[in-house]
Amino acid sequence: MSKLPYLISEINSAIEVYLSGRTGQQYNRTAFILCDDGAELASKLFLLTDTPTWDDRKAKGHFKRFNEITKDVRAVFKAKRAAEYDAVDALLINFEGRRGRRNDFFHSTHLLDLTVQGAECVRAFVDLLDYGKLLFGADWDAAVVANGTMETCEAVLRIDKKSFADPSVHPLLNDVLKRQPRSGPKPTKCGCEISHHPEDIHLRLVIRNGGKELKDELQKLL
């Protein structure tokens, strides 16, 4: 049984962490680290899918370093998918740069008060989504569709990235979200609590409950 759906689920959870603090930016650092983990897991799963005998441990039992894993990915593309080598190399360069910063978060106490900008998280996740598509092709697409909310989460991220170059896109996204119900139903005779959800909770509930109609509307903005 393919483990790709489990990888998709992990990445989707990481995206939801980011989206849960999208307005206040309070979870950027955690999301950035989880995104980096997703890049490593995607690389390992790809290598195992390509060569079932591949091992993420070296001769003495130590785990391979990240740059050793990315080297193995490059080797597969050079040998078997040369036409796509430049595309995967560009993404791996980005991941390798982020890995250095991610490690600094863990090992340097002077970075404890440093956060990650939202734009950095968005670019990191979009790179990861592009990477997964490049590695796994149609299997990736099928697993994303089967996940349920991944397509909608991806649309939000790609719209955010598009807005960096075209600011007019962001108000269009906000208009779509504003049209989604924000409060609960009116009280019944038996009593009912009406809840009003703040921005990021509203976004998560919209993603979870909006279904195909919302996903299609968001994708029209791309």
Order of helices and strands: HHHHHHHHH
**Class based on secondary structure composition and strand pairing:** mainly alpha
Largest sheet: none
Q: Compute the average pLDDT.
A: 87
What's the N-to-C terminus distance?
Answer: 33 Å
Low-pLDDT segments, ≥5 res: 191-195
| Beta fraction | under 5%
Sum up the overall morphology in one term.
globular
Number of strands: 0
Total number of helices: 9
Please summarize what this structure is:
The protein has 222 residues and is mainly alpha-helical. The chain is built from 9 helices and no strands. Helix 1 (4-20) packs antiparallel against helix 2, helix 2 (28-50) packs parallel to helix 5 (118-136) and helix 5 packs across helix 7.
Could you explain how this protein is built, in words?
This protein has 222 residues and is an all-alpha fold. Helix content is 69%, strand content 0%. It is built from 9 helices and no strands. It has helices at 4-20, 28-50, 66-80, 85-107, 118-136, 138-147, 150-165, 169-178, 199-219. Helix 1 runs antiparallel to helix 2 (28-50), helix 2 (28-50) crosses helix 3 and helix 4 (85-107) crosses helix 5 (118-136). The two termini are 33 Å apart. 28% of the residues are buried. Mean pLDDT is 87; it is low at 191-195.
Tags for this entry?
222 residues, mainly alpha, 9 helices, 0% strand, globular
Topology (SSEs and partners):
Elements: H1 4-20, H2 28-50, H3 66-80, H4 85-107, H5 118-136, H6 138-147, H7 150-165, H8 169-178, H9 199-219
